[in-house]
Specification:
The chain is of the alpha+beta class. It is built from 7 helices and 9 strands.
Length: 316
């Protein structure tokens, strides 16, 4: 059973909902230790003075911020503690926004929120209200002495809390300096149409279970083989960069390959107006469009049944 890493309450208006915080992901990174190649012993890292080579005891270490090369401002732990955000046990929701307004680049780390003792009904109420209004709660919370900006949204039957990057933490594309001028690399209408056909031929429903970390699996398999005494032959990869293919030829070949592999049987990409409602089940746009379709169909049907088509009386 998972263990809660934090407990507190969601607060908005005069509402207070006790919750427990759980991590929603478990990273599967393969980790290695550093060993002495001759003896196979695990090495230790020590903090040593760069000039004397002597080890510095932990209690002698201080924090320093580098202003310029070899020039530091020393900060005392008490000075940092004096300006730390006030530790509270509340997730203070400041705003409610539409989920489509949040660019995915701002999402950082996901958590689950479970109801605390006696909070099941209030928790279920907030879950249903967020789902019904298609809104996300933007809040602030202090976790491990750090203030976090978070988004609270429903996922299936649980509330998720995802930490968000602050606006000044996201690098603007204009800072890259290597992007081509859009006016210099305009794609032709035919190229765009073929790219659209390729995307539609490869479109399907998202199923996260079909994607696997193949490199991690290969590393674990290699470790198992070496542990059993097998000798691994190393092949030198080809460092030659691949040539940039002709764009039209590559598109045509890709579309043909997708059709041979049954790509045309996959679900085609939704139209722009339908993608929003499709990504959020029960959304207003989806229900509205469905209602208008039914209304149109019923009105057309009643029109045709109440007013039969007149026969032409014009003389031939």
């Amino acid at each position: 059973m998972a263990r809660a890493i934090w407990s507190g309450a969601i607060s908005f208006g005069l509402v207070n909902i006790p919750v427990k915080l759980f991590s929603a992901v478990q990273k599967k990174t393969v980790r290695f230790h550093q060993l002495d190649a001759k003896t196979g012993s695990r090495i230790q890292q020590k903090r040593v003075h760069p000039e004397t080579g002597e080890e510095i005891p932990y209690e002698q270490l201080v924090k320093g911020f580098e202003l310029s090369p070899d020039t530091y401002v020393v900060i005392d732990p008490d000075e940092l503690a004096a300006i730390e955000p006030k530790k509270t046990r509340t997730i203070d929701i400041e705003d409610f926004v539409e989920i489509d307004e949040i660019d995915p680049i701002y999402y950082d780390h996901p958590y689950y929120l479970a109801p605390g003792p006696g909070a099941s009904k209030a928790y279920a109420l907030l879950l249903a209200a967020l789902r019904d209004t298609e809104r996300v709660g933007i809040a602030r919370v202090v976790i491990r002495s750090k203030e976090q900006l978070v988004a609270i949204r429903p996922r299936e039957d649980v509330l998720t809390m995802e930490t968000l990057l602050f606006g000044d933490e996201v690098v603007s594309p204009s800072d890259l300096g290597e992007l081509p001028d859009p006016d210099d690399v305009k794609a032709s209408k035919k190229e765009v149409e073929m790219a659209r056909q390729l995307i539609e031929s490869l479109s399907t429903e998202f199923d996260p279970s079909k994607y696997h970390d193949e490199y991690r699996q290969a590393v674990l398999e290699m470790i198992e083989r070496k542990a059993q005494g097998e000798e691994i032959s190393v092949q030198t990869p080809d460092d030659e960069p691949a040539e940039v293919p002709d764009l039209m030829a590559a598109l045509e070949a890709s579309i043909a390959s997708a059709k041979r592999q049954g790509g045309s049987s996959k679900k085609p990409a939704r139209a722009k107006s339908g993608s929003k409602s499709g990504s959020k089940p029960g959304s207003k746009s989806g229900s509205k469009s469905g209602a208008s379709t039914k209304k149109s169909a019923s009105s057309n049907g009643s029109k045709s049944s109440s007013k039969p088509r007149k026969r032409s009386t014009a003389k031939k």
